[in-house]
Design brief:
A five-stranded mixed beta sheet has the order 4-5-1-11-12, with helices on one face. A four-stranded antiparallel beta sheet has the order 6-10-9-13. Strands 2-3 form a two-stranded antiparallel sheet. Helix 1 packs across helix 3 (46-63). By secondary structure, the protein is α+β, with helices and mostly antiparallel strands. The chain has one domain (8-254): Ribosomal Protein L22, Chain A (Alpha-Beta Complex), CATH 3.90.470.20. It contains six helices and 13 strands. A hairpin with a 7-residue loop joins strand 7 and strand 8. The longest helix is centred in the middle third of the chain and has 22 residues, at 150-171. The structure holds coenzyme A (COA). Coenzyme A (COA) is lined by residues 52, 55, 81-84, 98-101, 117, 119, 136, 161, 164-165, 168-169, 172, 174-175, 179. Coenzyme A binds at residues 52, 55, 81-84, 98-101, 117, 119, 136, 161, 164-165, 168-169, 172, 174-175, 179. Belongs to the P-Pant transferase superfamily. Gsp/Sfp/HetI/AcpT family. InterPro entries: 4-PPantetheinyl_Trfase_dom, 4-PPantetheinyl_Trfase_dom_sf, AASDHPPT_N, P-Pant_transferase_sf. Residues 115-211 form the 4'-phosphopantetheinyl transferase domain. GO terms for molecular function: holo-[acyl-carrier-protein] synthase activity; magnesium ion binding.
């Protein structure tokens, strides 16, 4: 069994191309809850169906790396905003996770802390920057973004996007949190600073953020409300197949 300290985050990656639907169905379909089966059957896009099934397989198989329970034993229940968590009988294991997918790639972040959020996005997808930035970013983020040379703007845009998503996913509230109510800034020393507005009423000292290069054409933001138990180690692994896992480097770009 793997051990997860309070000061650890473990990241688990998978690429859809390495898996096929019949294999996933055979391994995972019986462990889905009724709610999950219903969702799976309602997806019409083949890509989304596979992504969903692979995500659920990844979550259950990975949780079973930490606790001696078969993957099918994990009951996952979403909160009112869609964040799935383990329904824990008797609170005997404090394991928490958050999943993100973009295109072919999935990432799962595991910690002993419920307030964990991760977001992966394709880094080169063109965007109508002024329009989208005005809509989703705070005024200071927009000003800093457009003060950059044009060639750097798309990269900053996805840094902001993934970090903002990681925070709202860590809170478990999704877009019920106004994206204008918190702002990131990026000093030259590789740090990430956050500023919460009075409306958001959160405390920057409680949080840790990372921009991590997950390899390939992706950007990734990671957030955790670690409080006094600061995270000091992030480990990464990748599923090459259902039973084949390798350890990979964690490439921290900023923290
Ligand atoms: C649903 C949301 C939480 C994340 O959406 P997303 O970035 O498109 O999707 P991701 O792949 O990163 O994450 C999806 C996974 O997060 C989890 N999730 C769902 N709701 C969640 C929530 N409220 N909090 C945390 N995690 C959540 C689920 O595991 C989901 O996977 P599943 O659909 O296979 O069950 C929400 O933030 C959203 O709708 N965002 C839309 C994108 C947007 O406009 N962002 C503005 C960015 S600046």
């Amino acid at each position: 069994m793997l051990k997860l300290e309070d000061s650890d985050i473990h990241l688990w990656y998978a690429d859809q191309a390495e898996f096929n639907v019949p294999e996933l169905e055979e391994n995972c379909i019986n462990s889905l809850t009724d709610q999950e089966t219903d969702r799976y059957q309602r997806y019409t896009s083949e890509q989304r169906r596979k992504q969903f099934l692979l995500g659920r397989m990844l979550i259950r198989k990975t949780l079973s790396q930490y606790v001696e329970l078969p993957p099918a034993a994990w009951k996952l229940v979403a909160n009112d905003y869609g964040k799935p968590n383990i329904e824990i009988a008797g609170k005997d294991h404090a394991l928490f996770f958050n999943l993100s997918h973009s295109g072919d790639r999935l990432v799962l972040a595991i910690a002993n802390n419920e307030s964990i959020g991760v977001d992966i996005e394709a880094r080169n997808k063109p965007r109508r920057l002024p329009k989208v930035a005005d809509r989703y970013f705070s005024p200071t983020e927009v000003a800093d973004l457009f003060a950059l040379p044009e060639v750097e703007q798309l990269s900053r845009f996805y840094d902001l996007w993934t970090l903002k998503e990681a925070y709202i996913k860590a809170c478990g509230l999704g877009l019920a949190i106004s994206l204008q109510h918190f702002s990131y800034s990026f000093p030259s020393d590789r740090r990430i600073l956050v500023d919460f507005s009075d409306e958001r009423n959160d405390d920057a000292a409680q949080w840790q953020f990372w921009l991590i290069d997950p390899g390939g054409p992706f950007k990734m933001g990671l957030a955790i409300k670690s409080g006094l138990n600061k995270i000091t180690k992030i480990q990464s692994r990748k599923y090459l197949a259902l039973e084949e896992i390798i350890t990979i480097d964690t490439d921290i770009v900023r923290d």
